[in-house]
Amino acid sequence: MKPNDLYSYIRKNVVSPNWLSFILCYQPIIGLEAAAVYQFLWASYDHGAGKYPLSRILNHVNMGIPHLEQTLDVLGAMQLLAIYQKGDSYVFRLAEPLAKEDFLDNPLYQKLLAKKIGEPAVEELIVSKPVTDTEVTKSFSDVFSMTGDIPLKPFQNSSFDLQAFKTMMARDQLRFQNERDDVIALYHLAEKNGWDWTQTYTIAKETANGQVIRVNRMEQKVEVKPVVVTGLTKQEQAIVRESRAKTALEFLTLLKETRHATVTMSERKCLQQLVDLGLLDEVINVIVLYTFNKIDSANLQEAYALKLGNDFSYKQIRSAEQAVQHLRDSKGQGRKKQDAPAKKSNVPEWSKQEVKTERTEQGQAELAALYRELEAMETKGEG
Questions:
Q1: pLDDT tens digits, residue range 192-223?
Q2: Could you report how far apart the first and last alpha carbons of the chain are, in Å?
Q3: What is the pLDDT of residues 252-288, one digit of tens each?
Q4: pTM of structure
Q5: Are 206 and 172 in contact (CB under 8 A)?
Q6: Secondary structure of the chain: what % helix, strand, coil (to 5)?
Q7: How far apart are CA 316 and CA 261, in angstroms?
Q8: Which domains does the chain have, with CATH numbers?
Q9: For the chain, how long is the longest CA-to-CA vector?
Q10: Between β-strands 175-176 and 81-86, what pairing exists: parallel, antiparallel or unpaired?
């Protein structure tokens, strides 16, 4: 947008805003600047008679063009304004704010408002219904026929059914990490990806950790793109498949058992820290296996695993294939710096030990045994 671009109004679009609802419900969310722009557009409505430069708005509300673009986007996101563009000109269609009761009946809007003014303040706005009385209000189908000429008031809601979502959570004993923020994120993900509540719940359950829904992992799961990695050895293919088939704790437990050890509390904490980075279990599993193979020990070298996790999070590695490819590429770059050629081995190149200067025959045998066990598990699963 530029200050000299023209704007006009849609004709026959007279609105009568509910200013009580606008001030109490919308203004805390959209902010004073967006509220001022909406009020100015409403006050200067001319039934589509003329065209005006955007500088007219800028001068009245005293803001620059970047702020104006942002406020118009905010008004659009809250369904208070629709914007149509043709070349360098724009057409505005104002929409009325929802009534206070309808606004608060929308779970997404209610959570957004609570984030701004707090839950107690929102509770004060909610009209309490009689507890002991029986409601006898007729429904639409009770009053109107299929050819009724009185339109039903549109219900401002998406196909995301929060109540049904919570019912499934209770059945599976899942909980929110932060209900207020998580509900907003769930609505965003559902709308962005065209999900209904059942599709949203399926992804939420798959990416939950410790019975807690993790919306950042849901986003990672959605953004996973198919990656074709060529030249994987059988061992690497088994690692990818096993990484996908097990949770991070199950995978770590398997590796510890091969070393006749148990998972420690600090290792559990390390897994949780990797989860908090938003990494999926399949990526965490590759990190854990690589760390064990790099540092010959019965215990997970947590500092190194977290170092890898930070690197993977920064480089947006979202699948086991991407993790394997990244480690192989990194290994290949490291090999170029060495003068002597590497000794051939059945062990995948990316998982060879580097920290210790000498590899014991026992350590090599244990690593090969682990790969054989992974392959054997895969064979049983396919059978």
A1: 888 888 888 988 988 888 788 888 888 877 77
A2: 62
A3: 888 888 788 888 888 888 888 888 888 888 888 888 8
A4: 0.51
A5: no
A6: 60, 5, 35
A7: 32
A8: 6-94 (1.10.10), 162-222 (no CATH), 234-382 (no CATH)
A9: 87
A10: unpaired
